[in-house]
Specification:
Elements (H helix, E strand, L loop, with lengths): L15 E8 L5 E10 L12 E8 L2 E5 L2 E5 L4 E4 L5 E6 L4 E8 L19 E2 L5 H17 L8 H20 L8 H16 L6 H6 L5 H12 L3 H19 L4 H6 L6 H12 L3 H15 L1
Antiparallel strand pairs: 1-2, 2-8, 3-6, 3-8, 4-5, 4-7, 6-9
């Protein structure tokens, strides 16, 4: 990873006031930053494909995180993993605003670093302590780096380095020691790295499971426990994200984007896109173009 592409600022929806995506030089999704405003609570719990850091900016609200209520005020930080169900349960003011940093686990240089996102402690309250100030400073640096020019030297390297420092800072704040941790979690980390490097190739469940001496059933069960979706669903969504980035940043056809993202034929690509994105690739790209035109 040496260079990256960044989308223009655009209104992603009524609640996304700003969002940008950082990619590697292969147009592979790496991380994203969003500034979000919400005026009402959410009913549906959801999971995501990536790890997330949320920092409250305005308003006080209750979040429901894995069945527990967490009251979040400005300056408070939440660290969330892929499988962690969460939603805004109650807003005490007219609205709440927060920043969201989303990224894939493979940004970390060591698999031990991402284990902090799988602890039971999701909230890091704001305080005047040195460790809290370090976290706030690192988040400020990460935000500025992510929205900066794509031509800035060592851009991706700076982002990945800052995320690694944040994982260390979170671990120190919650008292997580430098241990090997859950071996299953580390093996899932390795499987995610493998899929991110070989997503254009044919990857079978049996092949992935055999790499760790698991049966396909056991591997699928562990994967879903940590990631929230099956290995097949993760791989398909990863390929779709890559195809979208290609269509956004390169002058290529939908079919070329599909082939370069690991889909064997147009039918499989269109079927997967409709299932996981709820629309066709052409309609999806028109929607993105329309949003960017509105912002411009």
């Amino acid at each position: 990873m040496q260079n990256r592409s960044i989308t223009d600022a655009d209104f992603h929806s009524d609640s996304y006031l700003f969002t940008c995506t950082v990619c590697s030089n292969e147009n592979r999704n790496l991380a994203s930053y969003s500034y979000i405003r919400k005026e009402k609570s959410e009913i549906k719990n959801f999971v995501s494909m990536n790890l997330r850091i949320l920092r409250s900016v305005k308003g006080v609200c209750d979040w429901m995180v894995d069945g527990k209520i967490l009251q979040i005020a400005p300056g408070d930080v939440m660290i969330l993993n892929n499988a962690c169900k969460r939603n805004i349960h109650k807003i005490y003011s007219s609205e709440t605003e927060y920043e969201m940093f989303a990224f894939y686990p493979y940004v970390f240089s060591k698999n031990q670093l991402w284990t902090v996102f799988f602890t039971s402690q999701h909230k890091i309250p704001y305080s005047d302590s040195d460790r809290c100030n370090t976290i706030q400073t690192l988040l400020d640096m990460l935000r500025e780096e992510m929205i900066a020019s794509a031509d800035k030297p060592y851009h991706v390297e700076s982002i990945t380095h800052t995320l690694n420092l944040l994982a260390i800072a979170f671990s120190r704040e919650i008292g997580l020691h430098n241990t090997q941790g859950d071996s299953s979690l580390h093996q899932i980390f390795e499987s995610l790295n493998y899929m991110s490097e070989h997503f254009c190739e044919r990857i079978s469940l049996e092949e992935m499971a055999s790499r760790f001496s698991y049966t396909p059933e056991h591997f699928s069960r562990i994967f879903k426990r940590y990631i929230g979706i099956s290995p097949f669903q993760y791989l398909i969504n990863f390929r779709l994200d890559h195809a979208v980035q290609l269509m956004q940043h390169e002058q290529i056809t939908v079919l070329d984007a599909a082939y370069r993202s690991g889909f064997q034929n147009a039918s499989a690509f269109y079927k997967a896109f409709k299932k996981y994105r709820g629309t066709t690739p052409t309609q999806y790209m028109k929607s993105i173009a329309s949003q960017m035109n509105i912002e411009a």
